[in-house]
Structures are given as C-alpha cells and as structure tokens.
Specification:
Elements (H helix, E strand, L loop, with lengths): L12 H30 L4 H20 L5 H5 L1 H14 L15 E3 L2 E3 L1 H19 L7 H21 L3 H19 L2 H21 L1 H11 L1 H6 L9 H18 L24 H34 L3 H25 L17 H18 L22
Antiparallel strand pairs: 1-2
Helix pairs in contact: 1-2, 1-12, 2-14, 4-5, 5-7, 5-13, 5-14, 6-7, 7-13, 8-9, 11-12, 12-13, 13-14
C-alpha cells in the first residue's frame, strides 16, 4: 500500500503565524529580561538579545526547510536519527562543555554550545511513531510491543538522569505516552504503565536531594522555607527563592504591569530571568492581560496541532503531530505552572520565548515537520475531526 497522502495543499498558516508571533515576542522580552544579567556577565546588555536573533533566523530557515520536506522521509531515517541522538547524549559525558548549574548537558559543535537532550525531544517522537506504525499488528501485545517500548524509555531516562535533566525527560515521557495512546494503547498496558510510572517518578523524586527538596517545598512551602540542611544551615534560599520571587514579580504586575523594561525582580533577584523565569518577568512588566494573551496563544497553537493530527491521512503523520503538539503543550504548562506554583519547580524553557539556541532551533524544526503534515490532511468537510473515530484503515 502506498504511503503517499491523498491530499496536498498549503501549510497551516495559522500555526505558522502563531509560532512566528511567539518567536518575535520572545526576542523582545529576552531583551528586557536579560539587560541586567547580560551587562553583569558580558559587559553587553544586548548579549542575549543579539544571540537569540541569530538563532531565530537560523531556526526560521530550518522551519521553512522542514516544512517543505515530505514528512514520510523521517520515517525512513527514524532508526538512524535515534542512534545519532543516543550517541550525542552519551557524548556529553565524554566531551562536555563542563558543568553548568550542576549539570553536564552541553557539548561544543562548530564553536557553539549544543544540548543533545533538546534534539532527543524531536528524534524520539519520530522514532517512536515510526516504530509503533510497524507494530500495529501486535500493538496489543505486552511482550512484543509494550515491553520493548518500556526498555527504550528506560534507556533514554537513564541517560537524561545522569546529566541530570529531569525536566526534558518529563517532556519526552509525556510525548511518548501521548503517541502510544493514539497508536492503540490498551487498558491493560495503560494500567501496568501507570503503576510503573508512578513508582518511577516517586523513586526519581526522592532519590535526588534537590528534586526531593523542590517536591517538599511545593507540597509545603512554609516547611520548605524553614528547612535546614544537615550542617544546620538554612536552605530556604535554594528551596523557595525562585518561586517566591516569581510570585512577587507576577503579583507586582497586576492587570497591566509595571511597564516594559521596568521589572525590579530581574535586577538579580529572580534567577534565570531570560530563560526559565521569563514568564514571571512578562507578568511583572506587562501584567495579567498580556500574560493571559500569551497563554491563549499557546492554547490556540495546541488546538491547531491536534487538529492537524486528527485530519492526518496516515497513522505516522498523526502520531508525529500528536507527539510534537503534546511536547509544546506540556512544556508550556510546566514552565508557567512552575512560576505560579501549580506544579513543582522544574527547569524547562517557555517554548519559543525563553532564551536558548538549541531549544529554539529544535522547536522550530519540529514546527516545520508539523507544518508539512498539515499539507497532507483531509479536507475539513470530508473528515471526522475526532481522532478516536478515525478508521484504522488509514493506518499504514
């Protein structure tokens, strides 16, 4: 059976425009959020701003390129892409740029730092989607499908936790689960997987002192603020400092903000104002209204992504679209949720907004893949927009 889709038309312009708008907004906010730290670190208040512009240009070119490559090509190269990604993940322990904030996550490629775990988000979605398409005849089998699926997840998890990079691992696991659910996860497999996931998350959370402290602080902020280390020294700053200052920033912004560029928390009070904490700066400077508009932009982007998935003409395209969209949805939720104390503090960037070359580049490449899938979808009038009712006859 041919895997070529039955329809071909222009990319989903709504998705493209939304992402472009987020990138432009992110560049502006990075300039405001980073001026103090950039000047203190590099003597140039536009350091992060200028670098993000370069990465945005490269990323948008990459997005345009992948948007014009037939997404079925990635299915053929899925295995090789995963192997290369695993090699890169291992290479951080051999050719690391050095420890940054207690982690080894970066290598140097052509004079630029590169974070392999960001690439793993995309390549693992593509590999898992291609693998599950080939496993459709035995999708219900625990031995032939579910156990190999878990083994691969464990291998990825071990490499991520050794760096350590729990935030990126959580995003990869969420995307992997979403892809498997759409591919045909059975209730029996789901039950086993849920128990295993709860146990694994619990063990991971309590096995590391800093992750355990973050979890305890989330569950009981007052206790976290007053906790002490074994040496008797207070640990309130490490446990609650970022969350407390994020709350101060967002609360200070009220409805309309204190004004662009006028944030007080970015003046060495709020850690990582241009990366993990940028939503707090947005809330402080632009207020609730702009923050809400930003969240609505993400909601719209997620809606378009899942719509593209539901209208895809083949299972591979549907799975890749679901994986990419779930990645953006979960990452945005975790970043914003960390800043407003909805979830424990996890260091993940806000998609398309936070400073970070590798994150922005890989995210835009993924958007390009999603846009290419949107070129080969069913006309709305001919499609059932509920993914659960799409006939398995379209699977290939």
């Amino acid at each position: 059976m041919s895997t070529k889709p039955a329809y071909s038309h222009r990319i989903d312009s709504w998705t493209a425009l939304t992402v472009f708008g987020l990138v432009m907004f992110g560049i502006v906010m990075i300039y405001s959020a980073s001026v103090i730290v950039a000047y203190n670190l590099f003597g140039d208040d536009k350091y992060f701003f200028k670098h993000q512009i370069v990465w945005a240009i490269v990323g948008l070119i990459g997005m345009a390129t992948t948007a014009n490559i037939d997404y079925h090509v990635w299915k053929k190269w899925a295995g090789a892409m995963l192997v290369i990604t695993l090699i890169l993940l291992i290479s951080v322990f051999l050719f690391s740029k050095g420890e940054i904030n207690g982690a080894h996550r970066w290598i140097v490629v052509a004079g630029q730092t590169f974070q392999p775990s960001e690439l793993a988000k995309l390549t693992f979605i593509i590999y898992l989607s291609a693998w599950l398409v080939e496993r459709q005849k035995v999708i219900n089998s625990i031995k032939e499908t579910f156990i190999p699926y878990v083994v691969v997840l464990v291998a990825i998890s071990v490499l991520m936790l050794k760096q350590p990079d729990f935030g990126t691992l959580a995003i990869i696991l969420t995307s992997a689960i979403a892809v498997y659910v759409v591919a045909g996860l059975t209730w029996k497999q789901a039950s086993i997987g849920l128990v295993a996931l709860v146990v694994a998350v619990a063990v991971i959370s309590i096995s590391s002192p800093y992750r355990r402290d973050r979890l305890l602080t989330f569950l009981n902020p007052a206790q976290g603020a007053n906790s002490t280390s074994q040496s008797g020294e207070t640990t309130s700053k490490s446990n609650t400092y970022q969350v407390d200052n994020a709350s101060i920033a967002i609360g200070s912004g009220s409805w309309t903000g204190v004004g662009f560029g006028q944030s007080k928390q970015k003046r060495r009070y709020l850690p990582e104002p241009q990366t993990d904490s940028i939503f707090a700066i947005i809330g402080e400077e632009l207020g609730f209204l702009w923050s809400a508009a930003l969240i609505l932009a993400y909601v719209f982007l997620i809606y378009r992504g899942y719509l593209i998935a539901s209208l895809s003409t083949d299972l591979f395209g549907r799975l890749v679209a679901v994986g990419i969209t779930s990645w953006f949805a979960f990452q945005a939720f975790v970043n914003v949720g960390s800043m407003v104390h909805l979830v424990p503090l996890v260091g993940v960037p806000l998609p398309f907004i936070s400073y970070g070359g590798t994150n922005l580049l890989i995210s835009l490449l993924a958007v390009g893949v999603l846009l290419n899938i949107s070129r080969f979808i069913k006309p709305r009038e001919d499609a059932d927009t509920k993914p659960s009712r799409v006939s398995r006859q379209t699977r290939s």
